[in-house]
Amino acid sequence: MNSIALKMLMGDKLKYFGLVAGIAFATMLILQQSSILVGFARQTGAFIRDTAQADLWIMDPQVRFSQDQVPVRGTTIQLARGVPGVDWALPLYQGFLRGKMPDGTRFTMILVGLDDATLMGAPPVIADGTLADLRRDKAVFIQADKPEKKLMMKRGGNRPLAIGDRFSANDQEAVVAGTYRGRESFFWEPVVYTTYSRALQYAPPERNSLAFILVKVKPGHDLQTVKAALEDRTGLAVRTNEEFIKLTADYILNTTGILVNFGLAVALGVLIGSLVAGQTFYNFTLDNLRHYGALKAMGVSNSQLMGMVLLQAGTVAVLGYGVGVGLGSMMGWIVASQGLAFSMPWYVPAFAFTAIISVCALAAWLSLRQVFKLEPAVVFKA
Amino acid sequence: MKPSSNTPAVACKAVTRVYGEGETAVQALRGIDLDIQSCELMMLVGPSGCGKTTLISIIAGILDKTDGACRVFGDDLAAMSAAERTLWRRENVGFVFQAFNLMPALTAVENVAIPLLINGVPRSQALERAGEMLARVGLDNRRHSLPSQLSGGQQQRVAIGRALVHAPRLVVCDEPTSALDHETGHQVMDVLRAVAAVDDRALVVVTHDARIFNFADRIARMDDGRITDITANAAAREAVPA
Ligand SMILES: Nc1ncnc2c1ncn2[C@@H]1O[C@H](COP(=O)(O)OP(=O)(O)O)[C@@H](O)[C@H]1O
Ligand SMILES: [Mg+2]
């Protein structure tokens, strides 16, 4: 009976192609919308991931996301270093600063200041120069990825900022000494790295200017225990990388409405996909009702009919899903190479698979109801 | 257990069938008494709407009667559950339809193999037996043709092969020649008679095509839900080579 079911399915090439294409389209729609949502969610954590050589971040409890500016007192570092299990605790400056390029183009940057001695928290890949160049006079590093988008000189320069260029950061001179590669970030402003002490020179004077303290836990010490001890000692919030990433993602996705908007888009993708895929399969069964009637008369049992319909639904589901994932990944690859938010971790296709299988199961169930309901006596109706 | 040879294959007593309820109810059968023997070709003839299809549907176990008694090979179909009836049909009944009802995606030999597959015969074996059956209905060279590549007469011969391949004891045919021209209809009836009519099998053929009456052993005339008379056609078995 399985061979009959499959031949029935593939007999009409056009319908068969339509079924697989419908499900592939649904899969793609679901994949694409969810991947963009996940992509955005991931991009919100780009800075934290780029900086993640430490285990813990100490910050003001009011910090809502990674670019939030609520500095803590500088003396907190000493407190943190005194906590048992702390291998090292280092300062990290982060702040929004106004800049002006050589040709007069104004821009806003996110300035990050790394501990002068260790340069801990530097981006993972240095593209041009070496990290130690940061210690040279007035040295800063800019991002090598797509400088023409974020660091373009638009008032006559007609080229992106490059090594050797001088620009002003909050009216003080900075020299581009190197470039780095970082993750695609949700935040638009270019991230400029320098040393902690120079960052404080550039930054407008404030009573407190220490944005974060990066803490490494000694090997053999329990992360949670050290974390609790640090919270206790400093009275501040202490977060692991993952916690901080989640805090940031939750805040950004919710306050920007991205979650609602793309959540809706995903839901819409599932809905439209369901309608397309479900409808085509349901119609396919209805078109074959006459043959199911003949089979029923000839003694095909309900369980055999169920097996046939499920086999057909399962076949188009798996095939359509496969094609959809293939096309979806290709599209995603193109989109992602343009630097747009698109990220397809394993759970996105898994989610799409679950959705597609559920849709096909629903369509199969609705189809089967029609098949079961069918009186075998219809076979003699002309 | 096999019924003894003098037990009729089909025994209907006062069978009625009403479609629908109340105002719109249609009395399709108004008390049918009919016996069909295990070795005969019984033809049901009569004007359109007189209840022929309804009657063979009840005999073939695909429709419930409203009242009366109907035993087929001694089995009371009304006493069976729907699932039991399905299994009973699978084994005991072969169907031939006016519109052939072949599956368009399957080749001739695959179409013929369907009842065997339904009965759980392994595919390769089913195809082999179906091939032999096709040869018997004269389509040995069309095994791998799709229905769309066959003429109407050829399609109906495939359908006859499908109705017989699992050696059912009852074969029901509803207007098997009405979609065919006279000569082709005649050929199809020739094949049906020659291949289907064996001692252990009852054939019921519904028709209003007077030109094929000659193929019957007996003819039951129906009108308005009743059988008006039954005549024997002594010439039939001898007239057509078996
Ligand atoms: N499913 C049905 N519902 C209602 N009436 C029906 C149905 N099937 C048949 N009938 C009616 O029952 C009568 C007998 O029909 P049928 O057995 O098909 O006659 P025949 O095959 O001799 O043309 C007709 O009046 C027909 O309209
Ligand atoms: Mg009829």
Description:
The complex is a heterodimer of chains A (382) and B (242). By secondary structure, chain A is α+β, with helices and mostly antiparallel strands. Chain A folds into 2 domains: 166 residues, no CATH class; 163 residues, no CATH class. Chain A is 51% helix and 17% strand. Chain A contains 12 helices and 10 strands. In chain A, strands 1, 2, 3, 4, 5, 6, 7, 8, 9 and 10 form a 10-stranded mixed beta sheet that branches. In chain A, helix 1 packs across helix 11, helix 2 crosses helix 11 and helix 11 packs antiparallel against helix 12. The radius of gyration of chain A is 29 Å and the shape is elongated. The two termini of chain A are 25 Å apart. The model of chain A has no long low-confidence stretch (mean pLDDT 89). With 242 residues, chain B is α/β, with parallel strands linked by helices. Chain B has one domain: Rossmann fold. Chain B has 7 helices and 10 strands. In chain B, strands 6-7-8-3-9-10 form a 6-stranded mixed beta sheet. The radius of gyration of chain B is 18 Å and the shape is globular. Chain B starts with 9 loop residues before the first strand and ends with a helix. The C terminus of chain B is likely disordered. At the A-B interface, helix 1 and helix 10 of A face helix 1, helix 2 and helix 3 of B. The site of adenosine-5'-diphosphate has 11 residues of chain B, from strand 2 and helix 1.
**What's the CATH topology label of chain B?**
Rossmann fold
The named CATH superfamily of chain B = P-loop containing nucleotide triphosphate hydrolases
Alpha-beta classification of chain B: alpha/beta
- Hetero compounds: adenosine-5'-diphosphate, magnesium ion
Radius of gyration of chain A: 29 Å
Proper CATH architecture of chain B:
3-Layer(aba) Sandwich
Total discrete domains of chain B: 1
Q: What is the total tally of β strands of chain B?
A: 10
Share of β-strand residues of chain B = 25-35%
Strand share of the residues of chain A? 15-25%
How many separate domains of chain A? Answer: 2
Q: How would you characterize the largest beta sheet of chain A?
A: 10 strands, mixed
Largest interface: A-B, 26 and 31 residues
Q: Which term fits the overall shape of chain B? A: globular
* Uncertain residue segments of chain A: none
Total of helices of chain A: 12
Q: In one word, what is the shape of chain A?
A: elongated
Tell me the radius of gyration of chain B.
Answer: 18 Å
